[in-house]
Amino acid sequence: MSQKDLKAALENTIAALQENPAGARLVFKAKTRLLDGVRCAAEVRDFPPLIIDEPPELGGGDAGVNPVELILAALGTCQEIVYAAYAAVLDIPLEAVEVSAKGHLDLNGLFGLKEVPSGFQKISFETTVKSPAAQETIEKLVAVVEAHCPVLDTLTRPVEVAGTVTLNGAPLNFPARHAA
What we know:
The protein has helices at residues 3-19, 67-89, 107-110, 135-148, 150-156; strands spanning 31-36, 39-43, 50-52, 96-104, 122-130, 166-167, 170-171.
């Protein structure tokens, strides 16, 4: 999609939201299932299932990216999408945007060997932008992207996470440990 077409699509969505603010609230869904070993399939909308697996050293068959790599990919691609969207709306030319993300994880937490978090302890990313626009213009774009990237926002603030467990069709009385 050209920057002009992207701008038109986004401006139409913005206008529709201004007319109907209730339309701004969306619910995204994913359904996953364990296939075998630690290999899983994720279904999102009408796309073919996405295979998620672990590398051999974590008991997997390396048939796909693992869940924590998906987090890094989600951060990078969300940044790139928000750069493209805001650049289009603000008429800022972009030639390329690439994000390199790293997550630092201590396996002692995953395996319960030490009292450390089981998830990432640190995530860092580097964004490379190519554009003929002035540095000041790109700096303003960076500020807008950093303020409005949904995945960055989700990763950097407390988010309510709730879950239930059902065993053989009956709910377990097991409180979710995650709360904002």
